[in-house]
Amino acid sequence: MIERDYPTFRPHPLFRGAHAQTVGGVVFPGSLPEYRASQLRVPLADGDQIVLHDDCPSNWRGGQRTALLIHGLGGCHQSPYMRRIAAKLSQAGVRSFRMDLRGCGAGLELARLPYHSGRSEDAAAALRFIAQLCPSSPTTLVGFSLGGNIVLKLLGECGGNPPGNLDSAMAVSPPIDLMASSDWLSRRLNRFYDRYFARLLWRRLHEWRQRVPQAAMVEFTRRPRRLVELDDVYTAQVCGFGSAQNYYRQCSSAPIVPAIRLPTLILASHDDPLVPGHAYGQVALPACVQLQMSAGGGHLGFIAARSSDPDRRWMDWRVVDWVVAQGERPA
Asked: Which CATH class is domain 18-184+256-326?
């Protein structure tokens, strides 16, 4: 794989530091396009369904590139980064499919089981579905945060035999070592994100239970205050892992990243408050995997100072750069 050099990330002067970048990326989402996608339901082997949101450029033709985008924890197809990047890919002539993980977004009432960091089989089902819809078009798989771990896990599992027309991938801020990320969230200011996601997912579970009576549930003796507590008493139990520790061990992508055989870019920052930067340095990367680490950017923030990019969303343009570059490679 030929490594590409990307512009150095320089933070916006009003968003300096990991927390300013991380929170700013959520509070200031930027200009968001209107929803114009078509919804497609993908059946899963266990009877659940997920939804793909098809953003197809008006001038797109069969054989041209497609991309599958997978959101992070607590997100959906409406997450600002998903909307912005789908629109930018469309402008670049790439047909993108925004995937709602189980029970998320438009798929809230279509699943009995929850999503988690290791549901690579769902991404594989989506890729096969896209290949049936666009049989002559290669696909780049892009995952953000939790979705990034799913991407890397799938790549390691399939090796040189990828599902559908998958030929390349990208993972942005992926928590490749779930236990290390859980420990990282217990440190100082990082605890804010731990409590935030625990509260968010707690509310989502209650909404899901009300909307889907047959959804997999457990009886809580108290409200979990940390993600690891929620994973231990809920995710690990209903998904068959037994404990959060086993869940994190079985679903972390780090141990199988060395088995990846497709061109892959991992984009991350050293100051990420949700994912420890040193975790990436502990993985033996194969020649086909490029790691691009920036000094700053936080977690899915990357709000940049003025540069040659059309706007200040540095992360968005690196995704577009990578996906479009795959079309330059000979088949």
From this structure: alpha beta
